[in-house]
Amino acid sequence: MNRLPTWAALRPPSRESRDTLFMLAVIAWTVTPHLFRLSPWVAVLCGTVLWWRAMLAWRQAPLPGRWALVGVLLVAVGLTFWSERTLLGRGAGVTLLVVLMALKTLELRARRDALVVFFLGFFLVLTQFLYSQSLWTALAMGLSVWGWLTALTLAHMPAGRPLLREAAALAGRAALVGTPVMVALFLLFPRLGPLWSMPGAHARTGLSDSLQLGDVAELATDDSIAFRLRFDGPVPPPGRLYFRGPVLSDYDGQRWRAPPLPRWPAAFSGQPPPGPVDSAGAIRYEMTLEPLRVPWLPLLEWTQAPPTIDPPLAGLPQRPDDDGQWRLRSPLGERIRLSAVADMRAAPAAELRPAEQAQLTALPLGSHPRTRAWARALQEDPALARADAAGLSQAVLRHIRREPFQYTLSPGTYEGDTVDEFWLDRRAGFCEHYAAAYVVVMRALGVPARIVTGYQGSDAAPVDGYHAVRQSHAHAWAEFWRPGQGWQRADPTGAVSPERIDRSVALASPPGLVANALSAVNPGLQLRLRRWAESLDNRWNQWVLGYGRRQQFDLLGQAGFASPDLLSLLRVLVGLVVAAGLAGAAWAWIDARRQTPWQRLRQGIAGELRRLGIDSRDSDTLASQARRLVERHGATGQPAADALLSLERHRYGWPGHSDPPRGWWRGFRRALAPARGRP
After folding, report:
1. By the number of CB atoms within 10 A of the CB, which of 203, 243, 367, 635 ranks highest?
2. Measured between alpha carbons, how far is 670 from 648 in angstroms, rounded to an integer?
3. Of 204-213, 443-452, 547-556, highest mean pLDDT
4. One domain, residues 243 and 387
């Protein structure tokens, strides 16, 4: 026979259990983003420990012994060393911090332990920004801070059983009081760079310093933003928006690679022509660049002068290398904002050295025999007998236009010699197929050629004045050497899919289940939601993460400072700190003389009892006052005594209240009428 649950089993948890469960929920919310970045064992361990602690709190069971915790801690340290190969550094430190937070909940025996948990919780909130400083991270961690302030407020309300919403409201009001101070410090506190200069941002995807056929097609399915652009003047057509990344000239028959070392400080195709940079053909632009996987800045082609970056970027060369690349000493690990000028006028170029000529026409021995034979047949065409490099390039591009080539993200699996099969049999591929085959053919014709990777085009519609360039705009094109004129761009993709180059119409991968459902409800809903989210993210990046010293000086200039500098900034900040200190002292003086509703009510009760001949001390409880009232006045004092007992239950019974009940004082004074001898 099944036993029915007892009333004790259905009774709500005690206040201690409730507060502990709430704190465990806040801990889970705070550490969850970290669990997606750390080793899987961290999620298993933390989930198990937090669930175990929740069960102990619900059942009010004793906590485990200290030696059990030491054993689990040693196991966690060993697993951390096994997964991170060290106990130092960001990854290992965050791992240990998350584990220690979970284990600390198993020894919450004193107020000191709770304070340690609160400290760890706020510190864990800060560690989230080592990985991401996006708007969504800030919102999630803002909610986490509110939760920790609520838990801290509950810990400082030992009497009664205050409701969670009351503690949350008090914590929210305290946070709002501190918000002006936070805003003032954000606006005026001196800084060397924008907030995003904190280390730790890493690119999850992007260009690579090598290329094998199919790599760019995989990248083209990623719709995340690589960088945002804003132009000072008319927006150039998409066909002029080539953002130069790694130049790939080394080839082993399977993979194309960039030369291993940058070649500074020679300029790409000679020095830029003399004249002002704002002359005809120059494009001024501003770029907000996301973290990169490779040490390249994908600037607009023909950007010859170094970009302006605030704060200055360490290791930035003063000009592009002799391949036209802006190469850094290490990958860009943080979001930056830069301003640059691209002078699109061609510049005279130096001649290739014999060693470079040999390298840029070389093909691996025995590779692509059918494509080489096709190139020899093309070269024997009488119409091309006197053709130079440009004429040969046009002949190859005409072949692409004339034959039934297909531009697709899914060309299928190539077997054997990929270039031979693509160029002569299947004729279906993405931009890297066309660029690689074009370079192979040009080299087989004896023309120096290479592959260039980067981004091409942008979103047509700007968001807040910024054009988004996505990973799906990743592109591969080719260059061939023309004596006396230098490297010439040739984009075979434009021959088979002109709309990809001229209008930035990128191929899209098949939509998923959620996208299909949104399209069925509202065809444009998904696009509008994405633009709304990206608009918020862009404003966060520009107004908050991009707020640096230059913006601080602009703010002081708007406030009336003729020549804003760091000293002016410090003076304003010190003045605000002094004013805030004086205001805080005045508030504390007023608050010390202000009484809470309970204090005023207890003083009123004591005054009424004194009129009835009952002396009341501060240490008296409401129950003791009610008992003395009945002892002194008998049945006539019973109604007022009942009112005092009801007030005590309201304050200290379940669920407990922080504020006196409305109308109680008027009812209490009416209940005192019989004791006063009034009808």
Report:
1. 243
2. 18
3. 443-452
4. yes
The pLDDT of residue 506: 63
CB distance 294 to 245 below 8 Å: yes
Residue at 670 is within a domain: yes
Q: Which residue has the tokens 């400082």?
A: 156
Quick one: DSSP state of residue 463? B
**pLDDT class of 551 with cuts at 50, 70, 90:** confident
Range of the domain at 539: 514-545
Average the pLDDT over 492-514 and give the result: 71
The three-class DSSP label of residue 253 is coil
Q: Report how far residue 364's alpha carbon sits from residue 6's, in angstroms, rounded to the nearest whole number.
A: 82
Q: Please give the Cα distance from 94 to 122 (Å, whole number).
A: 13
pLDDT digits (tens, 9 = 90+) for 567-612: 888 888 888 888 888 888 888 888 777 777 888 888 888 888 888 8
Residue 563 sits at φ, ψ, to 5 deg, of: -130, 80
**Taking a C-beta distance cutoff of 8 angstroms, is the pair 443, 449 a contact?**
yes
The number of distinct structural domains making up the chain is 5
Identify the domain boundary among 131, 148, 166.
166
Classified as helix, coil or strand, 451 is strand
Rounded to whole angstroms, how far apart are CA atoms 593 and 177?
20
Alpha helices in 388-524 (DSSP H): 389-402, 418-420, 431-444, 492-496, 498-502, 513-521
Residue 192 lies in a domain: no
Does residue 410 register a pLDDT over 50? yes
Last residue of a domain, one of 528, 559, 592: 592
Residues 666 and 620 in one domain: yes
Spatial CB neighbours of 286, under 8 Å, sequence gap ≥ 6:
229, 230, 231, 232, 337, 338, 339
DSSP per-residue letters across 614-657: ----TT--HHHHHHHHHHHHGGGGHHHHHHHHHHHHHHHSSS--
Residues 37 and 128 both lie in one domain:
yes
Reading across the β-sheet that carries 474-482, which strands appear in turn?
A: 242-248, 449-456, 474-482, 486-490
Nearest CA among 311, 310, 289 for reference residue 300: 289
Cα separation of 146 and 637, whole Å?
46
Q: Identify whether 196 is part of a domain.
A: no
Q: Is residue 619 domain-resident?
A: yes
- Which strand ranges, in their side-by-side order, compose the sheet holding 256-257? 210-211, 256-257, 250-251
| Mean pLDDT value across residues 227-235 | 89
Radius of gyration in angstroms for the set of CA atoms belonging to the chain, rounded to a whole number: 36
Three-state SS for 212? Answer: coil
More confident residue, 81 or 655: 81
The reply to whether omega before 655 is within 30° of 0 (cis) is yes
Q: How far apart are CA 571 and CA 581, in angstroms?
A: 15
Q: Is residue 361 located within the same domain as residue 486?
A: yes
Read off the pLDDT of residues 439-450 as tens digits, 9 standing for 90 and up.
Answer: 999 999 999 999
Helix (H) or strand (E) holding 230: strand 225-231
Task: Indicate if 577 and 565 belong to the same structural domain.
Answer: yes
- Rounded CA-CA distance 648/558 in Å is 58
Tokens 């400080």 identify what position?
Answer: 265
Residues 120 and 263 in one domain: no
What sign results for the dihedral spanned by CA atoms 187, 190, 194, 197? negative
428-429/406-407 β-pairing = parallel
